[in-house]
Write a structure and sequence with these properties.
Shape: elongated
Order of helices and strands: HHHH
Number of strands: 0
C-alpha cells in the first residue's frame, strides 16, 4: 500500500480504511498474480514492477473513490 498516495488513504473514512486496503490487495492478487508474487518477495520491489503496480493500485483507488464520491 506504500504505492498509494498518503493523502488518498487519509480521505478514506478510518472505519472502512482497512477493508478498502485489504480488498485492493486481494483484487491485485487475483487479477495480477505474477505481480503480486513479485511484490510479496522480501526486499525492494523492482522499479518496473513498482510502476505497473502503482498504476494498477492507483486506478483501483480512483475507481472506488469516484464510486463512493470521495474527493
Amino acid at each position: 500500500m506504500a504505492l498509494v498516495p498518503e493523502a488518498w488513504i487519509k480521505k478514506i473514512p478510518f472505519f472502512v480504511r482497512k477493508h478498502a486496503t485489504t480488498k485492493t490487495i486481494e483484487r491485485v492478487a487475483s487479477e495480477y498474480p505474477e505481480l503480486y508474487a513479485v511484490a510479496k518477495r522480501p526486499g525492494e520491489l523492482p522499479e518496473a514492477e513498482r510502476e505497473v503496480l502503482r498504476s494498477i493500485i492507483t486506478g483501483i483507488f480512483e475507481e472506488r473513490m469516484k464510486k463512493h464520491k470521495i474527493q
